[in-house]
UniProtKB/TrEMBL annotation:
The keyword Disulfide bond applies. Residues 1-16 form the signal peptide. It is found in: Secreted. Keywords: Disulfide bond, Phospholipase A2 inhibitor, Secreted, Signal. Belongs to the CNF-like-inhibitor family. GO terms for molecular function: phospholipase A2 inhibitor activity. Its main location: secreted. This is A2 inhibitor and Ly6 PLAUR domain-containing protein-like. GO terms for cellular component: extracellular region. It comes from Podarcis lilfordi (Lilford's wall lizard). Residues 22-112, 146-229 form the UPAR/Ly6 domain. The keyword DNA damage does not apply.
Length: 314
């Protein structure tokens, strides 16, 4: 009797393990209900609505899926008025997706302030090309992107890259390359690296001074004022072993250099402008040490500062 009892107790488990496959409607509207492949445990309906090609397409598709990958809704924007939205619903009874009904989420496609550099679609394996695209919808925790005047002249403010929280005005005056340059640059920056004024000496009569002002309201840098420094370049008795500038990745080695005014550090600055890079050694003010996200115009070319390192001048 004992073996039979064991068999009776086990039988529901045996039956469960060879469950018949789930049946779902599969294909387009009105298609047949048929067996799902093993491992798929949900009946799904997917509604896609697309205006990506100028014309509006609405598609409903029935399929088998997995209950854990049953996404509710997502949206994509590839350009002005060019969107795709998809929403899906699941259920787990045979044929249940035949009558599954849900509303496609209403959306106003309101621009949310974020920008992606490329928005495009191509039915080829080549990369597609498209201009910047303004993202829409789904208010994120921080929807406000600061807008600042950017470039060499006052113009309409445009969106800053996320993470930059200050509008900046930078004036660079340089005699480092023999000729005198005086440049004004508007940009986005970080408020914690907003230096007021700094200066560098790389040799006799070879100086650079930069002064900047920041503010944090949209477009505020159009009206920023700063004090143009007129301080004389008086030697202060300190020296740095190297004073040079090179527009290459190689080291430059001229020097030593006599520091002037408030310069108490021997400074190394590395920066780039597209493929161009530069390295600079000289005397610098201590407020330059560790500065990041700063633009510096040298010889009329705007560079991004990569690193600034300092050691005390002797
Ligand atoms: C999905 O199905 C598995 C197995 O049937 C079940 O254990 C799990 O709880 C289900 N998950 C959801 C989110 O329904
Ligand atoms: C700046 O914005 C105004 C108003 O939106 C527009 O009329 C003007 O053409 C814009 N100027 C530039 C330089 O883009
Ligand atoms: C150099 O920068 C320092 C620190 O900001 C400033 O006090 C000084 O006046 C500047 N010197 C010159 C010559 O511009
Ligand atoms: C900028 O300077 C001008 C002229 O010196 C002055 O009239 C204006 O009020 C200043 N603006 C700010 C924001 O300080």
């Amino acid at each position: 009797m004992v073996p039979l009892l064991v068999l009776c107790l086990l039988s529901p488990l045996l039956v469960a393990s060879v469950d018949p496959p789930l049946k779902c409607q599969q294909g387009t509207e009105g298609s047949e209900v048929s067996d799902c492949a093993s491992g798929l445990n949900a009946c799904v309906v997917i509604k896609d609505e697309s205006t990506m090609f100028g014309v509006k397409f609405t598609t409903t598709f029935y399929t088998c899926g997995k209950n854990d990958s049953c996404a509710n809704a997502f949206t994509i924007t590839i350009g002005d008025g060019k969107h795709l939205r998809s929403s899906s619903a699941c259920c787990t009874e045979d044929g249940c997706n035949k009558n599954l009904d849900w509303g496609i989420l209403p959306t106003t496609w309101t621009q949310n302030g974020y920008i992606c550099p490329t928005g495009c679609y191509a039915q080829t394996e080549e990369k597609c090309k498209g201009g910047p695209v303004s993202c829409t919808d789904v208010a994120s925790a921080d929807t406000s992107v600061l807008k600042c005047v950017q470039g060499a002249e006052v113009s309409n403010a445009s969106d800053c890259v996320s993470g930059l929280d200050a509008c900046v005005l930078i004036r660079d005056q340089s005699t480092m390359l023999g000729t005198e340059f005086d440049t004004t640059t508007y940009s986005c920056g970080k408020s914690d690296s907003c230096v007021n004024a700094y200066n560098i000496t790389i040799g006799k009569e070879k100086h650079l001074r930069s002064s900047s002002a920041c503010c944090t309201e949209d477009g505020c840098n159009a009206k920023l004022n700063w004090t143009s420094l007129q301080a004389p370049w008086t030697e202060n008795g300190l020296t740095c072993p190297k004073g040079c500038y090179a527009q290459t990745e190689k080291e430059c080695t001229d020097g030593p250099v006599l520091c002037t005014d408030g310069q108490r550090n021997c400074i190394t600055v590395e920066g780039s402008s597209g493929a161009k890079t530069f390295v600079l050694h000289g005397c610098g003010t201590s407020n330059m040490c560790g500065v990041e996200n700063y633009a510096l115009t040298i010889g009329g070319i705007p560079y991004n500062i990569k690193t600034i390192t300092c050691v005390p001048a002797a």
